[in-house]
Amino acid sequence: MASHLLVPLDGSHLAEAALPVAITLAKLLPAKITLLHLLEEKPAELIHGEKHLTGADEAGDYLAELRQHILAADLDVALHVHANTVSDVAEGIVAHKAELHPDLIVMCTHGPGGLNRMMYGSLAQQVVGMGETPLLLVRPGFLVNDEAYRLQQILVSLDGRTEHEGGLALALTLAGVSHSRLHLLSIVPNILSLAGKHATISRFLPGTTLNLRDIAASQLKDYLEIQLDRAREAGITATAEVCHGRISEQIVAVANDRRADLIVLATHGKAGVKAFWDNSVAIDVQTRTVKPLLLVPV
Q1: For a Cys-Cys bond, which of 12, 22, 118, 286 suits 48, CB 3.0-4.6 Å?
Q2: Parallel, antiparallel, or unpaired for β 293-297 and 135-138?
Q3: How far apart are CA 265 and CA 277, in angstroms?
């Protein structure tokens, strides 16, 4: 059970997009919220078009003002300003795991952008790549007109491997407290989306690859039936399906069709160039969807 949510904030309204989701989850679980701000070495004058917070007192006042709005929801809210400046914000966020012991980090992701992003990964990608704590990413603009976040439909992507079921365990918890519907999705990748040695096999033995895909689909259906029983035993309404195609595209398409309020993925947390060449599903999904994305490290 997640009982402590950590919300890193940089002082911009853009980063505050994570707050409505954090507040809803904190009410449901219930959980404590800690608002975190890290002071950066040599900060830019502006961040996302707004004045950059440069002092501990200024950052403390900023977080205190936000807390007043959250306290109206009758939640336990703590503030933490890291007064010593940091050169790497992602490392600073991850380092606070040992100090603050959060069960879940909730933060804004700013979407795709340019060569620098491909080379180094977004801040959110770096955080999940370094840490072991689940990370919930929220895209600015997901909610409009200050509407509350509602959790009614959760999509969980599963690949049949037990080591990737941590995401399902957390999804079952969230579905239980929110009375959400759960949809389990497994995807048999098409030949074009295969990478590495699997792509080589498909190129030279296409008939073999098609047979293996049929076997994989059958095995995944059996696997999902077992997971459906697990969800139903927990009193959760759940459905499941097996799709064929490019994994990230299918996840986003099914999430849209199902009107999912949350996508849950297990991830090995590869960031930057390594993720680019390894064809990271998590990063590809992140760039394709505006829906909240819960990444659970393997």
Answers
A1: 12
A2: antiparallel
A3: 19
